[in-house]
Design a protein that fits this description.
single chain, mainly alpha, about 65% helix
């Protein structure tokens, strides 16, 4: 949609960018496609789950590639693994958010009890969406972690005096 500020990504779009850019893309897409208490919100929630699952699968594939020989210039597999774990938490929270979202979308709010129940559903929905957001932020943080320094090609110089030499002096 030209002129639209919405970020819209398809799962295949995530394959051609770096893991950090992919997490940023999914975060932007989630931010721009709100979960509302209607059919659109339900569609957006399942769409977010789809993007997060695709991103997690992509991270797992990256980990497998990084564990292969001759991949020294790649970030450590542990970093991607930890990030994928956080993405898994985000997926779990989105899945848990579906129950209150469906209840809010499909249940009439006519009686006082239904209105009281909807407060609980709204609260649970907000908790899960907030937890998913924190998990996604943690996944992004893991990808920002500094890389360990590369091993030097030349050995470090030996100290001029050993501790035993200092005791004798």
């Amino acid at each position: 949609m030209p002129g639209d500020n919405l970020h819209t990504y398809e799962p295949t779009d995530l394959d051609d960018i770096s893991p950090r850019q992919a997490v940023d893309a999914v975060t932007a897409d989630i931010r721009d496609h709100h979960i509302t208490v209607d059919d659109t919100g339900l569609f957006n929630a399942t769409r977010h789950i789809d993007l997060l699952c695709r991103l997690t699968a992509r991270m797992a594939a990256d980990i497998e590639y990084q564990l292969a020989p001759n991949s020294a210039d790649l970030p450590p597999a542990e970093t991607h693994s930890a990030s994928a774990g956080h993405l898994g938490r985000a997926i779990a929270h989105y899945a848990q958010a579906l129950a209150p979202l469906i209840a809010l979308t499909t249940t009439a709010q006519d009686t006082l009890q239904q209105k009281l129940d909807s407060l609980d559903h709204h609260s649970r929905l907000r908790i899960h969406l907030d937890d998913a957001s924190r998990a996604l932020a943690a996944a992004r943080s893991m990808l920002e972690a500094p890389r360990p320094p590369a091993a030097a090609s030349a050995p470090a110089p030996a100290p001029s005096h050993t501790p035993a030499d200092r005791r004798r002096a």
